[in-house]
Amino acid sequence: MTDIARRRRQLQERLADLGQRLEGIEAELDSHDSRDWEELATERETDEVLEGMGVSGQQEIRAITAALARIDSGDYGYCVTCGAEIGDARLDVVPYTPFCRSCAG
């Protein structure tokens, strides 16, 4: 298995990046105050996209936080369903996954 310290850094960096991104989304959502109906319609469409990005970011933050907890408990890199070791190739793609390839499918 790849160095756990490297995985922890990778997850913490992604967590920080997501935090900054969500702050930007919140600021953008709070900045709309147009009185023009056409502009309001455009802003609402943009807001829906931003809200979707925000929800997705929050889900990823929860998954990363759970992965960091698994690192702390010594369970990281093992499937939470069957206990099998999760392959490095899978963790390289989705470092916060709690499932091996078999259980994820």
UniProtKB/TrEMBL annotation:
Zinc finger regions, dksA C4-type: 79-103
The UniProt record lists the keyword Signal: no
Keywords for the protein's UniProt record, in alphabetical order: Coiled coil, Metal-binding, Methyltransferase, Transferase, Zinc, Zinc-finger
GO MF annotation terms: methyltransferase activity; zinc ion binding
Domain Zinc finger DksA/TraR C4-type residue range list: 74-105
GO biological process, alphabetically ordered: methylation
Coiled coil: 1-35
InterPro entries per UniProt: DksA-like_N, Znf_DskA_TraR
Entry keyword Cell inner membrane: no
Domain DnaK suppressor protein-like N-terminal: 9-71
PANTHER family per record: GENERAL STRESS PROTEIN 16O (PTHR33823:SF4), RNA POLYMERASE-BINDING TRANSCRIPTION FACTOR DKSA-RELATED (PTHR33823)
Name this polypeptide is given: Dimethylmenaquinone methyltransferase
